[in-house]
């Protein structure tokens, strides 16, 4: 299981890569594995401010639909354009081409987990 150092994680299985006051967000390798084959990503919050722990979109897999939770309060700037035609990128490369949104940070990142803390959370 891939849990890269240098990223922050949430208890809801999102990862966030922070770069100054912007960040890229996606779901973890663990989350995509639990969901199974992802067939559709629905994110309609571009341009909106979304509070920490609020839903910013959904991911639909063959077996289920799951909410995507904002790891930190902020404004959704962009949705990964690759995901419209190729939602399976989330399964294939969750930390690379399978990223979900770019956001502008408006809140604190203090409550996020390190890679070691996330590994402990999922029992790895």
UniProtKB/TrEMBL annotation:
NCBIfam families (alphabetical): gcvH, PRK01202.1
Key words, A-Z: Lipoyl
InterPro entries: 2-oxoA_DH_lipoyl-BS, Biotin_lipoyl, GCV_H, GCV_H/Fam206, GCV_H_sub, Single_hybrid_motif
Entry note: cofactor: Binds 1 lipoyl cofactor covalently.
Domain Lipoyl-binding: 22-104
Gene3D superfamilies per record: 2.40.50.100
Gene Ontology cellular-component terms listed: cytosol; glycine cleavage complex
Domain of life: Bacteria
Residues the record lists as N6-lipoyllysine modifications: 63
GO annotation (BP), single: glycine decarboxylation via glycine cleavage system
Gene behind the chain: gcvH
Family: Belongs to the GcvH family.
Taxonomic lineage of the native organism: Bacteria, Pseudomonadati, Bacteroidota, Cytophagia, Cytophagales
Record's protein name: Glycine cleavage system H protein
Cofactor dependency: (R)-lipoate
């Amino acid at each position: 299981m891939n849990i890269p150092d240098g990223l922050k994680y949430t208890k809801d299985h999102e990862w966030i890569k922070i770069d100054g006051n912007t960040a890229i967000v996606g779901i973890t390798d663990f989350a995509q594995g639990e969901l199974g084959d992802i067939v559709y990503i629905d994110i309609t919050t571009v341009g909106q401010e979304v509070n920490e722990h609020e839903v910013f979109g959904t991911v639909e897999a063959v077996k289920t639909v799951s909410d995507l939770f904002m790891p930190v309060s902020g404004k959704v700037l962009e949705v990964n354009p690759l995901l419209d035609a190729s939602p399976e990128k989330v399964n294939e490369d969750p930390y690379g081409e399978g990223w979900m949104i770019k956001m502008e940070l408006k809140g604190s990142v203090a409550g996020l987990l390190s890679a070691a803390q996330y590994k402990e959370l999922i029992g790895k």
